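Kindly go through one protein, given below as sequence and tokens. The question is how this chain folds according to its tokens.

***
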Amino acid sequence: MVGVEDRNRSARYGSTSGMSDEMTPRSEAEAISLDRVQRVLASVLVVFVMGLISAVLDSYLIFSGKSRMEHSDVIGLWGLSGLIGLLSAGMILMLNRHKPYHPLVLIGLIPMAVSWYWIFH
């Protein structure tokens, strides 16, 4: 008789264990909302990890780079901070389903542009 009860339960609930998967979205709107939340969280993570690396590198160049390093080294690290900023902006655009060569990728150059004045003047 146990087999009959399991089949009835499976027919009623759509699962052989009688448990539903709580992580499965129940409607299309819920799936879209879940997708948006996941993209936003991933974008925030990229901003804080990659963007922070670029900002810290620029801060180092501003406060102690000119006194401790040669000018060519400062220029190289300054360019590297711009590259890291462009890569992080590109990753955020791709996470949000834009092309990586979208004009908004230039936002990644903001830390490099802000540090330009203090590094070279």
